[in-house]
Amino acid sequence: MGPEIKFKEPKGISITTIYDNYLVNPNLKTGWGFSCLVEIDGKNILFDTGADSPTLLSNMEKMKIEPKQIDTIILSHNHLDHIGGLEGFLEVNEQQAKVYQPTVFSKPTKIANQVYSTGVLGKLIKEQSLIIETTRGLVILTGCAHPGIVNIVKKTKEIFSDQSIYLVLGGFHLSGSSDPELKDIITSFKELGVQKTAPCHCSGDRCRELFKQEYQENFIANGVGKIIEIE
């Protein structure tokens, strides 16, 4: 049994990818890693911090994102490409943000209004993902999906059994996977009712190609500078 979760008429939500190895805005810098900003209900949540603070902070400056306005930092897992920018960011942020390490939540936990951690998943590499409530369904944000991207979606369905999955965004950890493996995962996504996908970071080019073929207009080419707004 997951935690008791009540749906509360969510307001508009914005998700901005600040750090990634795929590029959307040519004025920004890429790097191997991931970070995105979630703006929701008056809160500014940074999910992961990329591999280094100079790239992270440079992209934030160019996108007119004020570091001091970040009130919450959630780290998916303790790999350098997801936590490397943390120390430098906190210096500029003046330690105003509360940091949630991946080992904090052993089970699904509410972090803020409409925002939840899946809790730590996986055996060898411990990782948490974010779940966001929206009027269109649930949004899942993953760092690297080391516990398995399908497992993360299934865990989300287990926690929120009465809600649909609107979007899965982040690293799918499928670089180097074979076409049959990727097609099986895409089939699982469809069976689980995932409406839109935005694989980036460690997902791999072939993964993105096959997801785009299957999802067509519901595939989002995510990367540095991409802004997704959900009313």
Compile the SSE list and pairings.
Blueprint: E1 13-19, E2 35-40, E3 43-47, H1 53-62, E4 72-74, H2 80-83, H3 86-93, E5 98-100, E6 109-112, E7 115-117, E8 130-134, E9 137-142, H4 149-159, E10 165-171, H5 179-191, E11 196-200, H6 205-215, E12 227-230
Parallel strand pairs: 3-4, 4-5, 9-10, 10-11
Antiparallel strand pairs: 1-2, 1-12, 2-3, 6-7, 7-8, 8-9
Helix pairs in contact: 1-3, 5-6
Question: How would you sum up this structure in a few lines?
Answer:
This protein has 231 residues and is of the alpha/beta class.
Keywords:
about 230 residues, alpha/beta, Metallo-beta-lactamase, Chain A, six-stranded mixed sheet, 6 helices, globular, disordered N terminus
What does the model show?
This protein is of the alpha/beta class and 231 residues long. The protein has a single domain (13-230), classed as Metallo-beta-lactamase, Chain A (4-Layer Sandwich), CATH 3.60.15. Helices cover 25% and strands 25% of the residues. The chain contains 6 helices and 12 strands. The chain has helices spanning 53-62, 80-83, 86-93, 149-159, 179-191, 205-215, and strands at 13-19, 35-40, 43-47, 72-74, 98-100, 109-112, 115-117, 130-134, 137-142, 165-171, 196-200, 227-230. A 6-stranded mixed beta sheet has the order 5-4-3-2-1-12. Strands 6-7-8-9-10-11 form a 6-stranded mixed beta sheet. It is globular. The two termini are 30 Å apart. Residues 1-10 have low confidence and may be disordered.
